[in-house]
Design goal:
The chain is mainly alpha-helical. Helices cover 82% and strands 0% of the residues. It contains five helices and no strands. It has helices spanning 3-15, 21-51, 54-71, 74-89, 96-119. α2 packs antiparallel against α3 (54-71) and α4 runs antiparallel to α5 (96-119). The protein is elongated.
Length: 124
């Protein structure tokens, strides 16, 4: 399933296949909150990764994973779940640069879909 289809499927799970105008407004707010709150959270994750703070990486990755999963961003959630597991398991964190690049690239793809959907209620 492609990213957009995954996000639409999750929104259908949240509000049903025939959402009311109030539900559409709620979905738009959900998507907008995701796109505005995620970049600062990824920045906090980056600081923790560069510092080697596994506890903070675990907390940030867990929170970001939940946000991504909540809107149907499964590939992003999977990247963050892997990072969360590595931080929790004590096996060592991956190299921050490439890991963060993958997370930011996937976020950019998901955010573009979220912004398009939030801006066009007929697409929700």
């Amino acid at each position: 399933m492609d990213r957009a289809a995954g996000i639409r499927a999750r929104l259908d799970d949240v509000a049903g296949p025939d959402p009311s105008p109030d539900d559409l407004a709620m979905l738009a707010r959900l998507l907008t909150a995701f796109t505005t709150r995620t970049p600062p959270a990824v920045d906090r994750l980056a600081v923790a990764m560069h510092a080697g703070d596994t506890a903070a990486v675990h907390v940030q990755a867990h929170a970001l994973k939940g946000s991504a999963a909540n809107i149907g961003g499964t590939a992003l959630a999977d990247l963050l779940a892997d990072l969360e597991q590595r931080a929790r398991g004590g096996g060592g964190l991956p190299d921050a640069g490439p890991a963060l690049d993958r997370i930011r690239t996937e976020y950019t793809e998901v955010a573009a879909i979220c912004e398009a959907l939030a801006g066009s209620r007929s697409a929700l």
